[in-house]
Amino acid sequence: MLPPAAGFSNAKDADAFLDRLLATFNYNKMDFSGAIVMNKKSVFINYPYWKQKFSEKK
Questions:
Q1: Closest CA to 16 of 7, 28, 3, 26
Q2: Would 9 be classed as within a structural domain?
């Protein structure tokens, strides 16, 4: 398995940021935990968007 693309700060929007987080989670749980800690403000700011996006009824 290859590591996810590096550089969370290079994510162009909240969706790209979440994609990188999920790729990190699937690759290595320890790196995922570190990514959350290092990017806690971005996670905090984007959480309401992600919650709304994934709780929409289709």
A1: 7
A2: no
For 12, the 3-state DSSP assignment is coil
- Model pTM greater than 0.70? yes
Q: How far is it, in rounded angstroms, from Cα 55 to Cα 49?
A: 10
Q: Tokens at residue 29, please?
A: 């749980």
What pLDDT digit, counting tens, does each position of 8-51 carry?
777 889 999 999 899 999 999 999 999 899 889 999 999 999 99
Name the domain count of the chain: 1
> Could you tell me if 17 and 11 are in contact, meaning their C-beta atoms sit under 8 angstroms apart?
yes
Domain, as residue range, for 38: 14-55
Please report, as a single letter, which amino acid is at residue 47: Y
Residue 39 is given by DSSP the state: T
